[in-house]
Design goal:
Two copies of one chain form a homodimer. By secondary structure, chain A is of the alpha+beta class. Chain A has five domains: 118 residues, Uridine Diphospho-n-acetylenolpyruvylglucosamine Reductase, domain 2; 117 residues, 2-Layer Sandwich (Uridine Diphospho-n-acetylenolpyruvylglucosamine Reductase, domain 3); 120 residues, Vanillyl-alcohol Oxidase, Chain A, domain 3 (3-Layer(aba) Sandwich), CATH 3.40.462; 107 residues, GMP Synthetase, Chain A, domain 3, CATH 3.30.300.330; 38 residues. In chain A, 37% of the residues lie in helices and 19% in strands. In chain A, the strands form four sheets. Chain A has a seven-stranded antiparallel sheet with strand order 16-13-15-14-18-19-17, with helices on both faces. A six-stranded antiparallel sheet of chain A has the order 1-6-7-11-9-10. The two termini of chain A are 43 Å apart. The N terminus of chain A is likely disordered. Chains A, B: GO terms for molecular function: alkylglycerone-phosphate synthase activity; FAD binding; oxidoreductase activity. Chains A, B: InterPro entries: Alkyl-DHAP_Synthase, FAD-bd_oxidored_4_C, FAD-bd_PCMH, FAD-bd_PCMH-like_sf, FAD-bd_PCMH_sub1, FAD-bd_PCMH_sub2, FAD-linked_Oxase-like_C, Oxid_FAD_bind_N.
Chain lengths: 566, 566
């Protein structure tokens, strides 16, 4: 057991937040000046005209009308006594930053100045003892507590219910951001829940370890948030989903801490660990996670491959999952997403260049249809021998499924740029576009059907709302019995962007359910996925879950209304 | 999707049960006539004199005083209407068979004719619809329902509470024993919960598939029982614990079926799947499991190895877990269990012979202490190339940890005999001995401490009760962050065998808790492990679990009192 000593500030001022109106930090924005194919591509697929250069959104915080805080002086005083005056915020900016996550609905609403209900105050506890006092105060004083990590949620887990009349406390976990210690013998790290991805990896990497959890939100999401929403990451094929990574847990409950031992497996009744995972704040406040960590791999490589069709790409991923190979990433884009990737590349380098160079030969020699072509990334991590052997096995499988390797260049670029897409969405919104994602998991036997019915459902939805829409997807994780499919959809919205979005989102989610897939593979439920819960886990399942919440939180203090609605 | 058509009888008469007084089927018994080292060894370690030949227990069912059934005619009539007269049993033999599992406490009590409370009747539903009717009747009529699989439980999950005044129905799932279909594309099999291990494997093997789940109880336990108790098997290193294998579930709840889709992973709130797993009947009746299945491996081999000490053996298992190798079995016995294995071998063949032949060379060349020597079995499954490569990697690690390979012979024998140990226990009991097992899991960093403190605790307990006792153990499963340790203890009991057992069992379980290990890795909680639950998962955890049970089963109809007590 080694104490990881990090000189980290735990001041309130050091807690990082994203922009109130969009993804990421101020000053970083997408532009396409070096990607000449991008604007024409977007114009073609959704009819949106993109401006060049950096775009000024014109959004001003002062234009917002923020509902006044209803927190009474007694509540504020009590919280100040617990965390100190500097750790209780009642100013409008802090409250607004803690109102929404970053789904397209959230961004549409915040950009339109829609703030039905805003947390009445934000508290920044410095440690678990303070969290306990806040939780106990909340129960005693009938407050509502909404735990807040990085604020990256995209299913409505963070927003207060509009009709809530009690005082709402947003409990920002940002000061609890330390790797407390690493059991190097066991590969187990005790980590505070409020640490954001890059900060945690930095602390772990400094000791030669990695968590191996890299969701799309990585740069702005927290370990506690990952656990609370059942997150999955880009390298979960190797490292497991957060449910696999999470061994021990500490959760502040009214009156005390629910503590789960960090043992590799246990047969102690229904899994409390698996009740906390995915609980989205409804069972208490996660303060600490003992997570499985791995030594940094000696070698790490992402190779790109091309397949003549989506079916070939899927068949290859399935064959890889069935084989003895164990790559760290298995990803294949459908033809739409492949075309999108090429359009966002810079000429002379980038994903497309090498492929563009190869194309004439490819098409002639193989007779491929360039519009059906699918780009795949397979990741390899481990000792050089393991990496070489896995690449060889995968290479054979790719070839057997009519695919071809296109080297490490595109993979390197993918690796560097993989967290940038949300900035693109903000830029797209600046020009009247709406884009968001839906993801699911299904058995191998159903994936083709899921994919084609999601396309059909989205296109029907686009027709219904009278827009030129676009949908694209990829397989993002493989399991023994199936895979995760991840879809991105976009359209130029009209005046009622939120209602239009709802039509498209609804159509896609219902297609998941109708094909036997799940309503969500790793984004959680929040408010947005609730309408499909009883179809997914059966009404009896929702009732059991509701019973769990009601018995654990009879006062509906902890993020009420999320996951199950009641 | 292929329907698996099997000509299986679903008659009540075809439902298999174990002996009322011991393990397994009538007519099969342990004897040691071909194992000359065995009786002297047992005499030495626990002072028990074993007779030769087959032993007649002298136990007669007619000597038992079985409390009369309190089931009223209305209840019996209602059940007969649901399942038919031949599927409702009220005879004493059937009721007694459904009273206990097969823990040492169970066997001590049944051999002593202690029957505080016996199920009032046994029902054998033919399908899920009948289970639903029984469940609904039980809720409406305030009955108690205890689901029954193979009856192999050893933690008291099956026995009725002595003070129960309501009519108790043992719900025997034995007629629901079919593999319903196999999704060959996805490696998912839809299987009825009441099928016993060998029957299920036979149905799967016939189609080229295996579940890969082989607990010690395999020959007499059911899929539903495995799920209900969070089982783990001998090859779980490769195939996963039952929690990994279980994808979809159907659970009959009052008023309807809780159905969980068989998707590879989902982010739909707290995991209902993981609440049902380990629920020991308290959340309803599991009728169907969609399980991950694997194609039968091309090659399958178990190799034996020897290590000069327990610490070397553990270090090797840890290094294997950290390596790129993925064996199907990782097992190493401590020196006591190694000595026991040698003593139970037949001369001329068996585990010991090859090793005995090697010993003089070994000891001279390597300077090993023969009393400290530890026997290990590592299993390999997959394609020939994978098996060869894994064996090579493991071979290197074994050597680096001062161990040596001793070939496939002992492994083959281990493989054939691995389910026979419980028969030995019955024979041992015939001679005044008591023996049982305790198992746990802990991080790698704690295993040595767990092991030595368990030994110390057991030996102190033996002293306290004034017996010559024996304890032995092995590592039975490896994970990234730790392993399962499995202990067997034995002593010659006095008049109060149950009280003596409690002292020893208590000491061992408390040593688990005190060293940071868990109260159980794969045996469940039942009644026997309850005393340590709040130390293991914290009082707050037990309260949340109790809340789940209370909300899901306010009438305490479903196996009340198990897992949490209330």
């Amino acid at each position: 057991m080694t104490d990881v000593q990090q000189q980290k500030s735990d001041s309130v001022a050091a807690v990082k937040h994203m922009k109130w109106w969009g993804w990421g930090v101020e000053g970083v924005a997408f532009h396409h000046d070096d990607k000449p194919a991008f604007a024409p591509f977007v114009k073609k697929i959704v009819g949106v005209e993109l401006s060049s250069g950096q775009h000024d959104t014109g959004l001003k915080f002062d234009d917002l009308t923020v509902p006044a805080s209803i927190a009474g002086p007694e509540v504020v005083d009590s919280l100040v006594q617990i965390v100190g005056a500097d750790a209780v915020a009642t100013d409008d900016h802090d409250r607004v930053v803690h109102t929404y996550g970053k789904s397209i609905r959230d961004l549409i609403r915040i950009r339109a100045g829609i703030l039905a209900r805003v947390p009445d105050l934000v508290v920044y506890p410095a440690d678990e003892a303070q969290v306990q006092q806040i939780v106990d105060l909340a129960v005693a004083s009938d407050l509502v507590v909404i735990p807040f990590g990085g604020g990256s949620n995209i299913v409505g887990s963070l927003e207060p219910l509009p009709a809530e009349t009690r005082t709402i406390v947003s409990l920002d976990m940002g000061r609890l951001d330390r790797v407390l210690d690493i059991d190097e013998d066991s590969g187990l790290a005790r980590i505070q829940a409020g640490g954001q991805g890059p900060d945690l990896e930095e602390q772990l990497n400094a000791r030669g370890w990695t968590l191996g959890h890299f969701p799309d939100s990585f740069t702005h999401s927290t370990l506690g948030g990952w656990v609370a929403t059942r997150s999955s990451g880009m390298q979960s094929d190797k490292y497991g989903d957060i449910a696999d990574i999470t061994k021990g847990l500490r959760v502040v409950r009214p009156g005390g801490v629910l503590a789960i031992r960090a043992v590799p497996s246990a047969s102690t009744g229904p899994s409390l660990r698996e009740m906390i995972i995915g609980s989205e704040g409804r069972l208490g406040v996660i303060t600490e996670v003992t997570a499985q960590v791995h030594r940094l791999p000696e070698k790490r490589e992402i190779l790109a491959y091309l397949f003549p069709s989506w079916h070939d790409g899927l068949a290859a991923m399935q064959a890889i999952a069935e084989s003895d190979a164990s790559p760290s990433v298995t990803r294949v884009s459908d033809s739409h997403e492949t075309a999108f990737s090429f359009a966002t590349s810079k000429p002379g380098k980038g994903i497309s260049q090498k492929i563009t160079d190869l194309l004439p030969t490819l098409l002639k020699a193989k007779g491929w249809d360039v519009d059906a072509m699918c780009l795949s990334f397979i990741g390899y991590e481990g000792g050089p021998e393991h990496v070489a052997r896995t690449q060889k096995t995968v290479g054979r499988i790719v070839k057997a499924n009519r695919g071809m390797a296109v080297g490490t260049g595109p993979g390197k670029l993918y690796d560097q740029k993989k967290f940038d897409t949300p900035y693109l969405r903000d830029f797209f919104m600046d020009h009247g576009g709406a884009a968001d994602v839906s993801e699911t998991a299904a058995p191998w036997s159903k994936l083709r059907d899921v994919s084609s019915r999601v396309y059909a459902a989205a296109n029907q939805a686009f027709d219904r709302i009278g827009v030129q829409g676009w949908i694209m997807g990829h397989l993002s994780h493989s399991y023994h019995s199936g895979a995760c499919l991840y879809f991105t959809f976009a359209f130029e919205h009209g005046d009622d962007a939120e209602a239009q979005y709802d039509v498209v989102k609804h159509a896609i989610q219902q297609a998941f359910i109708d094909t036997g897939a799940t309503v969500s593979h790793h984004h959680g439920v929040g408010l947005e996925h609730q309408p499909w819960m009883s179809q997914d886990v059966s009404p009896e399942g929702v009732a059991v879950m509701q019973g769990l919440f009601d018995s654990a939180d009879p006062g509906r203090v902890f993020n009420p209304g999320k996951v199950t609605g009641a």
